[in-house]
Amino acid sequence: MDVTTLRILATLVSFATFIAIAAWAYARGNRERFDADARIPFQQD
User: Fold this and answer.
1) Which of 26, 4, 23 lies closest to 15, judged by CA?
2) What is the C-alpha separation between 17 and 2, in angstroms, rounded?
3) What are the angstrom distances between the C-alpha of 28 and each of 2, 7, 9, 31, 33?
4) 1 or 8: whose pLDDT is higher?
5) Residue 26: phi, psi to the nearest 5?
6) Does the CA dihedral 41-21-11-6 come out positive or negative?
7) Average pLDDT for residues 30-45, to the nearest whole number?
8) What pTM, to 2 d.p., does this model score?
9) Where are the extended beta strands (E) located within the chain?
């Protein structure tokens, strides 16, 4: 394996990780949890 192949693999792994995180963030099942978490700073004690 040369350096170019390692760079290509690192790029592909990074892109796949980015897509996985984006899919998790925009999944419908997480909407309620994220909305609740977004309101935390505005809640009064």
Assistant:
1) 23
2) 23
3) 42, 34, 31, 5, 10
4) 8
5) -100, 5
6) positive
7) 90
8) 0.70
9) none
The answer to whether residue 16 scores a pLDDT higher than 80 is: yes
Token reading at 24: 């998790």
* 14-38 average pLDDT score: 94
pLDDT of 45 > 90? The answer is: no
Non-local (6+) Cβ contacts of 34 within 8 A are: 25
Cα dist. 9→18, 20, 24 in Å? 14, 16, 23
Q: Whose structure tokens read 């892109």?
A: 15
Q: Token pair of 8, please?
A: 């290509």
d(CA 13, CA 24): 16
